Each structure stands twice: as C-alpha cells, then as structure tokens.
C-alpha cells in the first residue's frame, strides 16, 4: 500500500509538471558508442528535451570532450549535432542538425514519427512512473522504447516518438545508444522558436538532401587524401579506404 502511494505521488508530480508549465525540460542520462559496429568508444551523454506547448527541442551533449572527425580511416559524423532535433507537432514538422568539419551548422527536414511501433505487454517503473514497452525499426536500426501512458505527450528523445505517452527510456538493439529519463524541471529560459520556424519557411531539404551532402563531403575528403598520398609519385593511383560511420542508414 505504501509503495502504491509513493508511485501515485510520483505520477502526480510528473503530470503536474507536464500540465502546469508552459516550458519544461526533461533530462535524460545515457551513453553513445561512436564506434558502433567496429569497437567500443562509449561516452556519457546528457539529453535534454525542452517542451514548449506543441513544439520541442532535443539536444544531446557529451559530458566531456569529443574528438570528432577522421579517426582510424573512418569519417565519424559529429554525435552532439546528429542528435539535435526540433519538432513541431502542430504542423507535423521535424528538423535535425548536422555540423560539418568546419563547425558550420546545417539543418534538414525529416518525417515526423514514421517508425512503426509494436506495443509489447511488458511494464516497468522508471523514476516511479509506470512505463510500457514498444519496439520498432527506424532508418536501419531496431529500437526499444519505454513510454509512460500517464503522460499525455507523444514526444521522446531524439527523433523518436508517436507512442501513447512520453518516452522515458530508449535504446537501440545493440545498446550503442541508450538514454533514460532522470528528472523534469521548469525551464528558466526557452529556446528561440522563431529561429526554427524561419528554417521551416525556407523549405529545407529532407533526409535525402542530407545523405547527398554527406556523400559529397565524403567524396571530397577521399579525393583530397588520395591526392596527398600520390603527391610526388608518378603513376600512383592510390585510393584511401574510407568508410562513413553514420548512425542513420545512408544508402
């Protein structure tokens, strides 16, 4: 009985925060292995989902220093930008950020919640909140999400969402990316919603445009490395063995 009372208090506090504040920050703690499929380069990250009415901004920043770029003949796309996502639920619009090697920020549009979830009859508690399980497939990877039916919000970390409740925990099938909600707080300052609305009105390219840009960047880097390798060598035709290390599948 005492345990049920504690759970009820947790739910009431969580939902009260959701409903009474115009701007809220949902804080997640977790990890990301930037060497997924090739080794272990796991780092600790903090995710923040700022919700303003029907719009939200998710960012995931490493708790430390990330040496992004070219590592071991692999083109690593910067993890703290590839997980930055803006969502407008009213217009069903999603934007995501990508930073190139010169630290220039590029924004692209994507489809809002295209993943097909299968609801699983399993439950567990996350921070005192009852959560239900769902599994799905998105851009080349399988994901598990634990969502809270008591929280009337279909959002979640990164691009994930579309479930009957806020996603409080999410991870891929290989556990290379894993975030769990730890707290909710009132936002002291909101994000610049006008910035993202202006981006939307400029008719941004979609995910295919992003994939095309990454491929062009890859080709230029490969050509530059080949030129450096062949410098001063008559008749050399060396082709560097580079690979793109992208979280989302780029055909």
Give a quick precis of the structure.
The protein has 251 residues and is an alpha+beta fold. The chain has four helices and 14 strands.
Describe the protein in words.
The protein is of the alpha+beta class. It has one domain (2-245). The protein has helices at residues 2-20, 79-82, 193-201, 207-230, and strands at 23-33, 42-52, 55-62, 69-71, 74-76, 85-88, 93-99, 105-111, 116-126, 129-138, 141-148, 166-172, 177-186, 243-245. The longest helix has 24 residues, at 207-230. The protein is globular. The chain starts with a helix and ends in a 6-residue tail after the last strand. Residues 15-21 and 66-73 have low confidence and may be disordered.
Secondary-structure topology with pairs:
Elements: H1 2-20, E1 23-33, E2 42-52, E3 55-62, E4 69-71, E5 74-76, H2 79-82, E6 85-88, E7 93-99, E8 105-111, E9 116-126, E10 129-138, E11 141-148, E12 166-172, E13 177-186, H3 193-201, H4 207-230, E14 243-245
Parallel strand pairs: 5-14
Antiparallel strand pairs: 1-2, 1-13, 2-3, 3-6, 4-5, 6-7, 7-8, 9-10, 10-11, 11-12, 12-13
Question: What are its keywords?
Answer:
251 residues, alpha+beta, 11-stranded antiparallel beta sheet, 4 helices, 22% helix, 41% strand
**Structural class, from secondary structure content?**
alpha+beta
Outline the low-pLDDT stretches: 15-21, 66-73
Instruction: Count the E strands.
Output: 14
Fraction of residues in H or I helices: 10-25%
Multimeric organization:
single chain
Order of helices and strands: HEEEEEHEEEEEEEEHHE
Q: Please outline the major beta sheet.
A: 11 strands, antiparallel
Order of adjacent strands in the largest pleated sheet: 8-7-6-3-2-1-13-12-11-10-9
Q: What's the rounded overall pLDDT mean?
A: 81
């Amino acid at each position: 009985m005492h345990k049920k009372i504690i759970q009820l208090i947790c739910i009431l506090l969580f939902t009260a925060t959701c409903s009474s504040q115009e701007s809220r920050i949902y804080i997640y703690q977790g990890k990301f292995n930037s060497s997924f499929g090739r080794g272990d380069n796991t780092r600790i990250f903090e995710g923040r989902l700022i919700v303003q009415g029907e719009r939200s901004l998710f960012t995931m920043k490493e708790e430390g220093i990330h040496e992004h770029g070219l590592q071991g003949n692999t083109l690593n796309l910067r993890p703290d930008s590839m997980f930055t996502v803006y969502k407008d639920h009213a217009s069903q619009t999603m934007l995501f950020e990508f930073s190139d090697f010169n630290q220039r920020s590029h924004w692209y549009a994507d489809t809002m919640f295209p993943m097909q979830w299968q609801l699983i009859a399993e439950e567990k508690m996350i921070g005192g909140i009852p959560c239900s399980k769902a599994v799905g497939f998105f851009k080349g990877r399988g994901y598990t999400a634990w969502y809270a039916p008591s929280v009337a919000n279909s959002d979640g970390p990164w691009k994930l969402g579309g479930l009957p409740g806020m996603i409080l925990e999410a991870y891929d099938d290989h556990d290379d990316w894993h975030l769990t909600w730890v707290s909710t707080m009132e936002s002291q300052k909101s994000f610049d919603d006008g910035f993202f609305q202006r981006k939307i009105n400029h008719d941004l390219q979609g995910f295919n445009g992003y994939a095309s840009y990454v491929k062009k960047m890859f080709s230029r880097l490969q050509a530059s490395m080949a030129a450096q390798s062949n410098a001063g060598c008559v008749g050399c035709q060396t082709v560097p063995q580079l690979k793109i290390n992208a979280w989302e599948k780029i055909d």
